[in-house]
Write a structure and sequence with these properties.
CATH superfamily of one domain: Ribonuclease H-like superfamily/Ribonuclease H
CATH topology of one domain: Nucleotidyltransferase, domain 5
Mean pLDDT: 81
CATH class of one domain: Alpha Beta
């Protein structure tokens, strides 16, 4: 969940399961942005990542989805705050995989016995970027080259005899921090006159091309420089556009307060024979010691996480280079010099150069030697360790908990602290860190295989009871087919059996979705079915005494907000039919038609998700009694989100359990261990609430129930 949420997840229904790699994608992009080749996750999208104040991962190591639903009512704050929930595919050593395979962060033990890594940023005072600009964020005018810098770095200047005959852009208005930025790049060929422009690209602040033109050189071309420019003789043959045409067009396009951005833009302006007073040069913006400069290709990869000027391309793409320079300037202005200095670009370049040297050495070695060397070397990681990526950028992660990673990535218990102490430490240290992992523990006594088996049995039994209804009494010779047809209109039926132990027959119906069972109780209790006025009720067991409370809480769950359940669909109805039928409903965002995970046939129900809660309420009134292809529809608020629906289905089919004709269960008192566990879970929920409340706005917070295997 994000405070001032800007996380959009495109998963619903059957697609609500994510892998640890997908979680890794999310956390990496949230923490690093476009640095270190981090990219938007494939399964969801973070908007305005640069506005994130931090990332907090709360891990409950011994707990799984099983615990969440067994103690659903106890997790009162957790389920009310966290809107996005997904089933995680099982993985061994989950915490180790989160930190990065083989990671060994070597945390320090504090006086309280907590596992902690310092959250203070490394000393940046020696970084050239920090030395040049300081640590505070500034507006774009602070990064425009001064007249002295323009002269020093060989930019065409108005009034100088050296640049006589050069055309001014006419942009003479005072610049402000809200002045528009434009990216500019040119490709040149060598002619008898010298360097002449043959391709010009200009992009606006959104990266859209305003000018992308080939230009006819004035003099005869001596060298096309195709490997760099991408220009060939054939490309220029039909071109009529002259340099003066381009100059005129640039003067028309650029507003009077325009700021041009480019990489070594002095070369481009010289080739264009133009003078522009306000320039941001990214080769100088990302400062280095001495007169050295970073290449645009390196900055694109290290800062923006994108590849440009690829080897398979012939020559550079000026539009791509102009857009990249512009994005680099926008990143610098938006993040501020301190954040850019934390990227530690010099270290990244050294690492890249070493890797390149190593690669060349490998290529020079005989094939047999390379194979032997690979056999002797330990296996290389497929991707960098998560902590390493963070530490390179100066964001030393905060790790708090009763466990720490050893060199093999396994967890070792250190029970010298309590969850309360961990919470206190987290409240102090999390605001100082941009990436934090907080581990709360229930203790090893609560993860025994016996207790887990008991929990699994209880949760499975309770879910089955909630999916089950009893209807009756019926006459002795009633038609079971009529009952099945009537109750089938509420939703997909898992199984249906006749109860014969009673004076008059009853029917036990187990549904596949919670909404169907609830709809049957609400709409058919007291109705006339198969010639009898019947009562519809759920099984009476100790675990079911709080069923009404649980149903109400599920209905109010934030994850079910704006989602309704519709039943009574015919098998002949397709998803396209439903899209057309429901298209008139206001603010409809998504439609989910559940399918049998084995046969792939769709069920006789669907879920509709609306952008606004009120639109869902309005839709309920419209749909109830609506007829679709001769079938009357019924609807109600959703109870089970996609991941719960899928989990119920899997439990039903893996256990193969059917309620049969059991009507009453013996009342059993909860064992002390489970009573104690309930109290611990309630405390844990309060800890999560306190920690969440203390977070800054725009903090991404993820809570993991990884399970023990």
């Amino acid at each position: 969940q994000e405070k001032s949420s800007c996380l959009s997840a495109a998963l619903f229904g059957e697609d609500c399961e994510i892998s640890r790699d997908q979680l890794y994608e999310l956390l990496k992009f949230a923490a690093l942005g476009k640095c270190h080749s981090a990219a938007q996750p494939s399964w969801c999208r973070i908007y305005r990542q640069s506005h994130l104040a931090g990332v907090v991962v709360i891990v409950l190591p011994e707990m799984s989805q099983l615990h969440f639903y067994q103690f659903y009512l106890q997790f009162r704050h957790l389920r009310k705050v966290f809107r996005h929930r997904f089933t995680l595919t099982p993985s061994a050593n989950f915490l180790a995989s989160l930190y990065g395979e083989g990671a060994n962060p070597k945390p320090q033990n504090t006086a309280q016995g907590l596992t902690s890594t310092s959250s203070k940023s490394s000393d940046l005072k020696c970084d050239p970027i920090f030395q040049k600009y300081g640590g505070k964020k500034r507006g774009l005018t602070s990064y425009i080259l001064t007249s002295e810098e323009l002269n020093k770095y060989d930019y065409p200047i108005k009034g100088s005899t050296r640049w006589k005959g050069y055309v001014c852009t006419g942009c003479d208005k005072q610049r402000t921090d809200s002045s528009p930025l434009f990216g500019l790049d040119c490709e040149m060929c060598l002619t008898a006159k010298g360097n002449e422009v043959t391709y010009v690209s200009l992009v606006d602040a959104r990266g859209q091309c305003l000018l992308n033109e080939l230009v006819k050189p004035q003099s005869e071309v001596v060298n096309y420089r195709t490997s760099f420019s991408g220009i060939t003789e054939e490309m220029l043959l039909p071109v009529k556009t002259s340099l003066s045409d381009i100059q005129t067009r640039l003067k028309k396009i650029l507003p009077r307060d325009a700021v041009l951005v480019g990489h070594s833009l002095n070369n481009d302006l010289q080739a264009l024979e133009m003078i522009h007073p306000s320039v941001i040069d990214t080769s100088l913006l990302f400062a280095r010691t001495g007169n050295r400069r970073f290449k645009l290709k390196f900055l694109a990869r290290a800062v923006l996480g994108k590849e440009i000027q690829c080897e398979e391309m012939v020559g550079h793409d000026p539009a791509e280079d102009a857009r990249t320079a512009l994005e680099l300037a926008q990143f610098f202005i938006e993040q501020g010099p301190a954040k850019v200095a934390e990227l530690n670009l010099e270290m990244l370049l050294k690492a890249e150069n070493l890797a390149e040297v190593s690669k060349k050495k490998d290529a020079l070695q005989p094939q047999g030697c390379r194979v032997q060397q690979q056999l002797n070397e330990p296996p290389r990681l497929s991707k960098p360790c998560f902590l390493e990526c963070l530490q390179v950028t100066g964001q030393k992660p905060l790790l708090l908990g009763r466990q720490e990673l050893d060199s093999s990535g396994l967890c070792q218990s250190n029970l010298s602290t309590s969850n309360k102490q961990i919470l206190q430490k987290a409240l102090e240290d999390v605001p100082l860190s941009t990436f934090s992992i907080i581990q709360f523990s229930l203790g090893p006594e609560n993860i025994s295989s016996r207790l887990l088996a008991e929990l699994c049995e209880k949760v499975g039994s309770k879910l089955t009871d909630m999916l089950t209804i009893y209807a009756g009494p019926f006459e002795e010779n009633f038609r079971l087919k009529s009952v099945k047809k009537k109750f089938g209109k509420c939703g997909p039926i898992q199984c249906l059996t006749v109860v014969t132990e009673t004076y008059q027959p009853y029917v036990c119906i187990q549904y596949e979705v919670l909404e169907a069972a609830q709809l049957a109780v609400e709409s058919l209790n007291g109705a006339e079915v198969a010639g009898s006025c019947i009562k519809v009720q759920r099984p009476v067991t100790a675990a079911m005494l709080d069923c009404d409370v649980l149903i109400k809480e599920l209905e109010l769950d934030v994850e079910n907000e704006g989602v309704i359940y519709v039943a009574g669909l015919k098998q002949s109805v397709t998803e396209k039919d439903l899209q057309e039928e429901f298209s008139q409903l206001k603010d409809l965002e998504m439609l989910f038609l559940p399918k049998d995970l084995q046969s792939a046939k769709h069920r006789n129900c669907c879920f509709l998700k609306f952008q606004k809660s009120q639109s869902a309420v309005d839709a309920l009134e419209v749909i109830n009694g609506w007829t679709l292809k001769g079938s009357k529809l019924r609807s109600r608020n959703a109870l089970a989100s996609g991941h719960l629906w899928r989990w119920i289905w899997q439990m039903n089919h893996s256990n193969g359990k059917q309620r049969g004709n059991i009507f009453y269960k013996k009342m059993q008192q909860l064992p002390d261990s489970e009573q104690d566990l309930k109290k611990k879970v309630k405390k844990l929920d309060n800890h999560i609430q306190k920690l969440y409340r203390s977070l800054q706005n725009n903090t991404l917070c993820v809570v993991l129930f990884p399970g023990v295997n």
